Amino acid sequence: MSEKKDNIFRRLYYGVLKENPTVVLCLGLCPTLAVTTSAKNGLAMGIFTSVVLILSNLFISLLRKLIPQTERILGFVVIIGTFTTLSQLFLQAYFPDINEALGIFIPLTAVNTVIYDRAEKYAVSHNAALSIFDGIGMGIGYTLIITILGAIREILAMGTVFGYRLIPAGYSISIAALAPGGFIILACIIAIANKINGGRRL
Question: Of 20, 92, 162, 173, which has the highest C-beta tally within 10 A?
Answer without folding.
Answer: 20
